[in-house]
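Researcher: Sequence recovery benchmark, item below. Answer with residues only.
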């Protein structure tokens, strides 16, 4: 799938960043992202209520990146971004918060406990909703577009890669 390289052309798109720097039940961070990939595709397809063939996914390569902020001496992160094109569900606060809840449930299945971790600390899986088209939301649980998106090379580089072409990952 080829996605337009301009964020302004992404009216029916939704982007999610993935990251991990601790092992999960699936294994090391790289294996965690490989394992969660089809689960995330199914989750978003079901949430969007689309026929799977109609919702197109474009995946960035996996990137190894240094931690930004948080406690010192953290392990390196494995990061990626997935861009979903063709989201026809109308943008709304309830829908966005529902997706966020489902993303957090998926994180928990891979061992993340948001109540016990340090801010910007190590984690077994991090799923961040980056944007949903040009729609804006300012809610205590979720701000869209992601407020630090433009400051994070570990998100921007995979996002731009996903906008150019989708990459298959091999374990």
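Model:
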């Amino acid at each position: 799938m080829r996605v337009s390289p301009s964020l302004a052309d992404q009216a029916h798109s939704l982007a999610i960043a993935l990251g991990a720097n601790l092992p999960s039940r699936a294994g090391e961070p790289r294996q965690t992202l490989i394992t969660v990939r089809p689960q995330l595709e199914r989750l978003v397809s079901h949430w969007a209520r689309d026929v799977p063939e109609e919702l197109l996914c474009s995946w960035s390569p996996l990137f190894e990146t240094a931690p930004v902020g948080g406690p010192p001496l953290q392990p390196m992160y494995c990061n990626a971004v997935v861009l979903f094109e063709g989201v026809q569900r109308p943008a709304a606060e309830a829908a966005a918060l529902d997706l966020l809840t489902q993303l957090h449930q998926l994180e928990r299945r891979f061992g993340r406990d948001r109540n016990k971790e340090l801010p910007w600390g190590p984690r077994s899986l991090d799923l961040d909703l980056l944007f949903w088209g040009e729609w804006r939301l300012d809610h205590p649980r979720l701000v869209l577009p992601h407020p630090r998106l433009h400051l994070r090379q570990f998100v921007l580089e995979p996002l731009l890669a996903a906008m150019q072409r989708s990459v298959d990952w091999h374990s």
